[in-house]
Write a structure and sequence with these properties.
PPR_At4g14850-like_plant; repeat; globular; PPR_rpt; 431 residues; Pentatricopeptide repeat-containing protein; E_motif
């Protein structure tokens, strides 16, 4: 109990006071040390044990694997006596490799296993999905001789996490056809798929299923419903569920704020951010990104600058995306020189998106002089020919043309031609 609660000193104190210790007690103490990152004490106790069980070895392998030290984890795995090697010791080793992204090593141990449990199949599926290898994850799933709900959840959640929403929904249908009952994990993943693909009708059907099956409305389900309704544009239902929640974590606040921002209700996004602060809920990097995006699209320059000034206060490190939103905000408002000066001052190397946002603002506000400076910066930053330079040259040419600087526009197109750039054919869409 003490060890699992992170109080390793009291755990050891109780251990030392015990008149008699057995292998179970020692395993608990080793597990506590390893979970709390004290590998030195864990290893020392391990070496002192007169007798070890499979659990002893598992605690050591799993402990090092969770700390990312797969070399030592493998050394312990290779030392496991033959009579103590079982499906669980191998499964823990496979899971360690999968969690640390080494799928090649995981597959070798996996294929060498004489028998496999449902846990190791799910580890392999999740491991491949984590690496973005959707095809190989499905190959492993199809090999499972007898599937259970955990295996299906690994497949559906993996599809959803990789943006394969149609596949996730198809797997969900197939799972039910095979007679499996859904649980909170299944439904959270399916709601995520609906949110990503904007399938409001399917999302509503899932909501009805939750009500009919009387599935517990835990934090994950409620967050999933808020996120689905918000991303699908049904902000009324999203807000209704949100307001009815007894506990709101940063995930559901972010879902509401980003939902407002995506669907043009920028003022509401800013108001929700203020509410979040007033209630003492700590915003994270996603919160700031959503609010800054809302400020940029709604033209709320003052509010955007105030929001950005709070990033450090909440211990959030501003990323290139946050700076991109700020450049976009200033650019849309016509404060181009201010945006340019900010780019020159930011501690991170400006990427194509940031320069592109400023160039786009130059086009809107017909500022060819600043556009010239921007293109020089881009060329200086990246001397090699690439698609980013090409798109910036096209954009700059369009800026000149739009501002009636036809000679400069033609010169820019000639320059592009000489450098071997191809102008991407235009496309139009009728909505």
């Amino acid at each position: 109990m003490y060890a699992k609660c992170g109080n390793i000193a009291d755990s050891r104190r109780v251990f030392d006071y015990m008149p008699v210790r057995n292998v179970v007690t020692c395993n608990a103490m080793i597990g506590g040390y390893m979970r709390n990152g004290d590998t030195k004490s864990g290893s020392l106790l391990f070496e002192q044990m007169p007798m070890r069980t499979a659990v002893t070895w598992i605690e050591m392998i799993d402990g090092y694997a969770k700390l990312g030290d797969m070399v030592i984890a493998r050394q312990f795995f290779d030392r496991v006596p033959f009579e103590l090697r079982n499906v669980v010791t191998s499964s823990v080793m496979v899971d360690g490799y999968c969690s640390n992204g080494d799928m090649e090593a995981a597959k070798k141990v996996f294929e060498a296993m004489p028998q496999r449990n449902f846990y190791v199949w799910s580890s392999m599926i999740s491991g491949y999905f984590k690496k973005g290898d959707v095809k190989e994850a499905k190959v492993i799933f199809d090999r499972i001789p007898r599937r259970n709900l955990v295996n299906w959840n690994s497949l559906i959640s993996g599809y959803a996490q990789n943006g394969c929403c149609e596949e996730a929904l198809d797997a969900f249908t197939e799972m039910q056809a095979e007679g499996f009952e859904v649980d909170e994990v299944t439904l959270t993943s399916v709601l995520s798929a609906c949110a990503q693909s904007g399938l409001l009708d399917v999302g509503k059907e899932i909501h009805q299923m939750i009500i009919q099956k009387r599935i517990e409305l835990n934090q994950f389900i409620l967050n999933g419903l808020v996120d689905m309704y918000a991303k699908c544009g049904d902000l009324g239902n999203a807000r209704l569920i949100f307001e009815g929640m007894s506990y709101k974590n940063d995930a559901c606040w972010n879902a509401m704020i980003s939902g407002f921002a995506i669907h043009g209700q920028c003022k509401e996004a800013i108001e929700f951010f203020g509410r979040m602060e007033n209630l003492g809920e700590k915003p994270n990097d996603i919160t700031f990104l959503s609010v800054l995006s809302a400020c940029a699209h709604g033209g709320f320059v003052k509010e955007g600058l105030e929001t950005f000034s709070k990033v450090e206060k909440y211990g959030v490190t501003a990323s290139i995306k946050h700076y991109g939103c700020l450049i976009d905000l200033l650019g849309r408002a016509g404060r181009l020189e201010e945006a340019y000066d900010l780019i020159k001052k930011i501690p991170l190397k400006p990427n194509d998106t940031i320069w592109g946002a400023l160039l786009g603002a130059c086009r809107i506000h017909m500022d060819t002089n600043l556009a010239d400076k921007v293109v020089k910066e881009v060329c200086k930053q990246n001397s090699e020919k690439g698609s980013s330079q090409e798109s910036h040259h096209v954009l700059l040419s369009n800026i000149y043309a739009a501002s009636d600087s036809w000679e400069k526009a033609e010169r820019m197109r000639m320059d592009m031609s000489n450098k071997g750039f191809q102008k991407t054919p235009g496309r139009s869409a009728v909505h």
